[in-house]
Amino acid sequence: MTELGARLSAIDAQIADAARLAGREPDEITRIVVTKFHPASLVRELHALGVSEVGENRQQELSAKQEELSALDLRWHFIGQAQTNKASAIRRSADVVHSVDRMKLADALHRAADDDHVLDVLVQINLTEDVARGGVPVAQAIALAEHVLSLPSLRLRGVMAVAPLDEEPASAFARLRDVSDGVRAVAPDAEWISAGMTGDFVEAIAAGATHLRIGSAITGPRPDRG
After folding, report:
1. Which pLDDT does position 219 carry in this prediction?
2. CB neighbours of residue 103 within 10 Å
3. Positive or negative, the Cα torsion across 182, 187, 189, 191?
4. Residue ranges of the domains in the chain?
5. What is the CA radius of gyration of the chain?
6. How confident is the model at residue 223, as a pLDDT?
7. Which residue of 6, 81, 145, 193 has the smallest Cβ count within 10 Å?
8. What is the pLDDT of residues 185-220, one digit of tens each?
9. 3-219, superfamily in CATH?
């Protein structure tokens, strides 16, 4: 087994253990491999190992890799902060956008639709008091969700968040679960909870996460970009 395959297997085993500990089935959870700064060749290796869900933080990388690897059966998740002027490029390359955090971005993604394709999106929630962080404030989450529901080219799938650095992940993800419950009151099908990265996916699973965004624990250290 290659080092990449060993890391992937180890993480999948930990996910399965955490799911069972939380009284859940491992197949309820989607593992997204985040390949930020890694070459397309690594994504090819991951695909050969059975990976089908891949995440990118930057539009330029997303677009380049998706184009180069378009022949592969991959589902591309855009998980980074998005500028409205990149909405068209993101929409052309992404199957799912996790980071819809304002009405203007939702509108831009909707305007970028050029066919009958419906784009899966999640509302990103800011679990901190820092307004500079990505995500809509918790108090505004329902209003943003309702706005997304009004845009026919978007399909609201759920919520996403990053745990704050100064809070225990378990309590942060419990609050995200509460927000998810509120969103599902207006959008019953919006069942996804995108939460949990390398350092906190166990707590995310315990709180009901359906999608995990895991990078270096699988891919290894990011290449030196200098």
Report:
1. 97
2. 16
3. negative
4. 3-219
5. 17
6. 80
7. 6
8. 999 999 999 999 999 999 999 999 999 999 999 999
9. Alanine racemase (3.20.20.10)
Return the percentage of the chain with pLDDT > 70, whole number: 99
- Which uninterrupted H or E stretch holds 112? none
Provide the whole-model pTM: 0.96
The pLDDT assigned to 226 comes to 47
Strands (E), the chain: 30-34, 53-56, 75-78, 96-100, 119-126, 136-137, 154-160, 192-194, 211-214
Q: Report the distance separating Cα 149 and Cα 157, nearest Å.
A: 10
- Stretches where the chain sits below pLDDT 70 are 224-226
DSSP state of 189: T
The tokens for 212 are: 């995990």
Nearest to 218 by CA among 73, 1, 44, 10: 10
Instruction: Show the tokens assigned to 62.
Output: 């997303």
Query: CA dist 66 to 21, 31, 35, 78, 218, Å?
Result: 36, 18, 12, 11, 20
The amino acid at 3 = E
